[in-house]
Amino acid sequence: MKIHGRHILFLLLFFCGTAQTLFSAPPRLVQSKILYLREVTYRLTLQFDRLPDSVSTLNVTDGQRVLQRLPLHRDGETLQFKTGPFLFKNTGKFSLHYEHQQVSASLPVLPGWLSLLPPLIAILLALLSRQVLISLFAGVWLGAVFIYDYNPLTGFLNSLTEYVGKAPATPDHAAILIFSLTLGGMVGVISRSGGTRGIVERLRVFASNARKGQFVTWLMGVLVFFDDYANTLIVGNTMRPLTDKLKISREKLSYLVDSTAAPVANIAIISTWIGYELSLISQSFKTIGLTDNPYIIFLKTIPFNFYPLYTLAFGFFVAILGRDFFSMFRAEKRAAEQGQVLAENATPLMDVNSSELQVKEGVPLRWYNAALPVGMVILTTLAGLWFTGLQNVHLSPEDIQGMSLLRYVSLVVGQADSFAVLMWAAFIGSFTAILMALAQRILNLNEAIMSWVGGVKSMVMAALILTLAWAIGNVCMDLQTADYVIGISRQFLSPHWLPFLSFLIAGLIAFSTGTSWGTMAILAPIVIPLSYELPLASPAISPVLAHEIFLSSIASILAGATFGDHCSPISDTTIMSSMASGADHIDHVRTQLPYALIAAAVAILFGYIPVGFGLHDWIVLLSGFLFIFLVIRFLGKRVQA
């Protein structure tokens, strides 16, 4: 058992020395947590090597009185005491007692609401102070103080070593950092060699004004559907020079990038998301004995995935109508009238004005010096997803013969090692950009390498913010923020309101923790079985409505996770959107939030609530599209350039 100072859950067995003792070894605590919350139920499991057959109960005491009498469950060949569901009502030292033997466990118990403070404080400070790094670290430090016995000094030291220091140490996080930094290096080379300016001149034929430029950006975001990270970095970096020329604000660019990346990857029938989503659905189906094909069920949930669909529609209507409102309108007005794509006090996450990223004087502006490296990134990603997926899919010829082509392709892509593939793609894109610059004698080797390094340096701020975002996500995991939100919301669940509440809870968890995939993993095992069994158990609900509630509840998990992730300043995809677009992160969050909230409100009022009460999904989907169009058309204002 690992020792975590004063806060680790430890176990002591006190032998009383009686002749009746039949234990051959002290019991082991099978499941443990760093701390416990008052409002969350737990099951503590103790495992014994030997135990008398006569033992049937376990008494939980606080040293003076019996708090709970728990039955003993013998699990196969092992002998286990399984407590619970047990709800702690105060802090202290609790004992598990049997006859003359006593097991004492020191359980640190916190009020559940404290688990919400670290992410909320980080978000509030970021919005008020505009200092993202300090705000995120404040949230990490506050959470570490709670975890480490309310000691500010111990919390500070462990926030550095246990959370910030270890945040990028996981393979997936390291891959994302390397991919982002390397792609930044590629952008540095193509910028210095004139490729970026060249592609801007080429695209100006198709995007001659701000409205067309926004539409082309939105369209590129939809077309790069296979991965949200690749989508964000490719579209943001490619379109930024063009949107700057067209006097489109960086806030609008980062919104168009962010509002297409995760939503389109979420509902795409072939993407890096689908394998993860199918695995969660399949695992939940096993727990309830459901034999339906998870992929077919996923396809049926797409019309119920209201928030991603409405968000894509919102971006499309904003682009083609050229209308905005709230803070986004003010940003667009500033860019159009004053030519300032960034606010006066903005701090962009990517320094695109670095001297290493400026076009070398006298070089030809050739569009293919940007298009070919970006194309290599896309081709490498697609090929890599296919070949790594083939290595991980083990199907017999009989299985493949009875499978549709679409299902087979989706299964292969879903099993791909997307993080490894993205790293390959970024390095191959960098090599391509450098070789093209050398072959045309635009840059010499030293200039090419320095341009690549300059591109990497421009991403350092974003890399630091990503690391702190992951750190505060780990703090939320140890504080069980998601468990607390679920625990206090269980009492409100009902069949008709299940899709709406699932969407709302998923949004809250993703907003607080900054992770959409983590939110899906938390809620899928809870909501999917509940949405299948609860409507069927209600005699007032028809089988048809029960099935629609089941499908919309699955979709609401995926949609709510995307919604909360969009709104959260500590989300990695939100940070990467600001980074790739060269936008101020807080400005991006502030201008995107009203649009995301409107799309979520439409998803609730025109989607999850009426569907839960029996209205057909296609009726509410089309009604929501119409309502969004009318809101933008009649409430939005057009900037006069």
What does this structure look like?
The chain is an alpha+beta fold and 641 residues long. Helices cover 62% and strands 9% of the residues. The chain has a domain at 5-110: Sandwich (Immunoglobulin-like). The strands form five sheets. It has a five-stranded antiparallel β-sheet, with no helix packed on it. Strands 2-5-9-8 form a four-stranded antiparallel β-sheet, with no helix packed on it. The chain is globular, with a radius of gyration of 27 Å. Residues 1-25 have low confidence and may be disordered.
Please describe the topology of this protein.
Blueprint: E1 11-14, E2 28-29, E3 36-37, E4 41-42, E5 45-48, E6 57-61, E7 66-71, E8 73-75, E9 78-82, E10 86-87, E11 92-98, E12 101-107, E13 109-110, H1 117-129, H2 132-147, H3 152-164, H4 171-192, H5 195-203, H6 210-223, H7 228-245, H8 250-267, H9 272-287, H10 294-301, H11 306-321, E14 323-324, H12 326-338, H13 368-392, H14 397-401, H15 405-414, H16 418-439, H17 445-457, H18 460-479, H19 481-489, H20 498-513, H21 516-537, H22 543-567, H23 572-581, H24 585-612, H25 617-635, E15 637-638
Parallel strand pairs: 3-13
Antiparallel strand pairs: 1-12, 2-5, 4-10, 5-9, 6-7, 6-11, 8-9, 11-12, 14-15
Biggest β-sheet: count, sense, barrel? Answer: 5 strands, antiparallel
Low-confidence stretches: 1-25
Going by CATH, the architecture of the domain at 5-110 would be Sandwich
Percentage of helical residues? 55-70%
Strand numbers in spatial order across the main sheet: 1-12-11-6-7
CATH C-level class of the domain at 5-110: Mainly Beta
Helix/strand/pairing category: alpha+beta
Give the full name of the CATH homologous superfamily of the domain at 5-110: Immunoglobulins
Q: How much beta, percentage-wise?
A: 5-15%
Computed Rg: 27 Å
**What is the overall silhouette?**
globular
- The CATH topology label of the domain at 5-110 is Immunoglobulin-like
Distance between the termini: 66 Å
**Overall pLDDT level:** 80
- How many individual β-strands? 15
Can you count the helices?
A: 25
